[in-house]
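Structure ticket #2291
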Amino acid sequence: MKGFAMLGIGKIGWIDKEKPIAGPLDAIVRPIAISPCTSDIHTVWAGAIGERKDMILGHESVGEIVEVGSMVRFFKPGDKVMVPAITPDWGSLEAQDGFPQHSGGMLGGWKFSNYKDGVMAEFFHVNDADSNLAPLPEGISPEEAVMLSDMVPTGFHGAELAGVTPGDRVVVIGIGPVGLMAVAGANLMGAGYLYAIGSRPVCQEAAKFYGATDIINYKEGDIVEQVLSRTKGKGVDRVIIAGGDVDTFGQAVKMLKPGGSIGNVNYLGEGEFVKIPRLEWGVGMGHKRINAGLTPGGRLKLQRLATLLETGKLDTSRLITHRFEGLEACEKVHFMMKDKPVDMIKPVVTIKY
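Resolution: structure written out below.
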């Protein structure tokens, strides 16, 4: 089979590999919808998780099962399925301890385009198929559903980590696709004033659609000062970090009030340390909590999020700004995510057979 791969740090290209083999609990899937992720950009071009050789990229997909292992109970060839970006080993001790995303070690549930070949190929392998796949509901298109692989659960997890409660003043730093879903998640969880920080007009308009009450443009002044001005110097209850770099944590701490919390779901691709401002952190005693995590993945989470699309409470089609057909478009959309055209939120590739 062919796949679009990271050949090494700063190197990408098409390669030929053997078609994967399903173990007793696993499935082999062919993609029918794929979307690239900024994570792949960090992995390839910044070497954020170290060297990877000839590793097929991509972890956002909807597909059709072509083969299942002998112990798979709930799925069969021909089923159309949603595939989460995070596919834990559900029998691990870490999963039993409540952290399936770290099964087998830190970030161990993030397998696609990290520890094993990803989904930008003619076929891909899914471990623990019964627990890591979800049926594609009728009435939801593969393009809309592929946003449930990573963008929706990651953005919503940011709101969960921040502990958003009804009436909270919430800031979302970075309103790319994950940040937009953090806005949507915080809004559904009852945020009051909801400040979205970003500069691109297409993302600003989408943030308003998903529930932002205020747009803050970092090109128009220091974001901490803008937030504190809107809150009369008191700061906000919650901050969700969905973009930026290692210095963004300092900004988040400065705009957070005592007793507030930060939820980070941003993939930090560069930098050695996260710096926390000592005074604004209450010299270590300000009760300003920082929670940072990877979305847990799995079938149940995916199915529950899909109900938001089925009931009309969430519209992921607003994220999709560019559409392409054919596996060969994976290279084009990879560079789109790298270059970030001003009118882009997310591109999607569909594959017809």
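Closing remark: The first strand starts at residue 2 and ends at 8.
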